[in-house]
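Input for the complex:
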Amino acid sequence: MATTVATPAKLPSRNPRTSARTWRLPRTAGEVLVLIVLIVFGIATLVPFYVLITAALRSSAEAVPANMWDFPWNTSADGFAQAWGLLHANLLNSFLVVVPATALSSIVGAFNGYVFSKLKFRGSNLIFTLVLIGMFIPYQSVLIPLVRFLAAIGLYGTIPGLILTHFVYGISIATLIFRNYYAALPKELIEAAQLDGAGVLQVFFRVVLPLSVPGFIVTALFQFTSQWNDFLFGLVVVPDPAMQVATVALNNMSGSLTVDWNVVMAGALIIALPTLLLYLLLSRFFVRGLLSGSVK
Amino acid sequence: MSQHLPKLLLLPTVVLTAIFVYGFIAFSIVVSISNWNSFGINLNVRSPWYQTYLDLFANPRFQIDLRNQLIFTVLFLILTTFIGLVVGILVHNVVIARGFFRTLFLAPYALSFIVAGVVWRWLFNPETGVNLLFDILGVNGALKAAGMEPLKPGWMTDPSVVLSINDALGSVIPPLRDLGLQLGIPVALIPIVIAASWQVSGFAMAMTLAGLGTVPVEMIEAARVDGASSWQVYTRVVVPMLAPTIVSTLVILGWTSLKIFDLVVAMSGSGPGFATDVPGIFVYELTFQAFQYNTGAAASIMMLLAVAIVVVPYLTHTYNRQEDAE
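Predicted:
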């Protein structure tokens, strides 16, 4: 679907390696070497996860710098209990922001993607480009007007204000993903429905939407992950500690001298879990979403 | 009705984009040329209108930020693209547990920069983490036995700048001898490059894997028939064919790098002597802590320009290629 790569006009045959699922033991020296190098890279990738998980499992007394690499033989749930106590309200805030914002931008993105791929009109490509540019701007360059605008409509410092922010700035990537997704739908499908006398919206709701489940999974997963992981908008739009989202609260907690190291790590792990689990469960959809960000 | 429906469907997006993207950017530009540098709003145009930009580039902290951003971007792009290419090619060719490796290497990308920053901040704490590992793995024991100093870098607490080119520049262009800014690599920035690369290399790997999927098998087989070794097949045939993928990866990583904020905030903030300060932090602090709105806005417009220089040619190119294909 949405890979970045310049596809040659005629694809002779795709390299079967990418989809092959046959496992076998390495036979040649080269194959063994590839495996060994990958294991080394794999261990390097896992090191921060090891520190994150083991530190979170230590008791406060054992969470001292000198113990960082020790295996946590005596596990303790203290870190999780304290982190949950400090962060559960913020986690709820994050969910309250991210779920509606993800839903809204995915729905609007689906309509847009349909128009930009199947209902093109004069100038629609230009509008698409202008919408797409919104995806790439560094958000620092809209913060001052954003805060003033939200204040003017009474939403500054509120959860709905942050929902609106994530929704609006999520539209462009959602539009891009759906446009690419719908571009792959055969024209005949829509023409056949139109011949049966269905109007534009009827075709969309009866024919296109039922086929859109994978598109919605890709978009929602991408939106959820990037909005859950967001820090800048959360920091600027909702600064009030009682209403902060989880990433902002975690950053404050980590900078605080009164919170133990195991608690900070447990908090980081709790915040990482939703996106990490979604990724592990739906990794193929995740990859499609993030490659679509590179525009094709 | 039916012929206007597509336009009607786009209307909410067009209105919201016009306000939240283009309107807001225009407002930020207005702020950046205004006199608004304290809490109360003041949009009168400053005289001359570009004075805030002149002040910005004369600001020693912003000069440090530009250096840091440049160094960070170059190191991060090289390291991440290289790892992504190597790991991608290896994962593509491994005969066992391919899916496992792919999932593992991309996992850090699912995390928030804040979570990653919190962990890496501890890993590069001079009293523990990587330095402790040097002790445990016997690196320092070996150095001691060889009569050398133990390896115990201060990482993000180290304000020094290594590989400075000031003297070299000064001998060629004498006026630059008195440059206040150290042109080199701030030691404190290195852990941040490593952490960022740890988190984003999986993305570069995914790009490589997607690119490798489009390399025709026939080309590889033809090269092998001609007697090329695996190494030659990759360096002479496959990697050159991946050039468009690598360019895409570089553009997206460059874009990521130019907006870097969260990770630095979570790891070190501005750092000692602004050694890890970046424009993203500068904009935030000047705007929301110092209330120097015009300076903050001017710096944010510079960030926007930098991103535009990287992204617009790429978008235009992709877009034109698509138009040709249609």
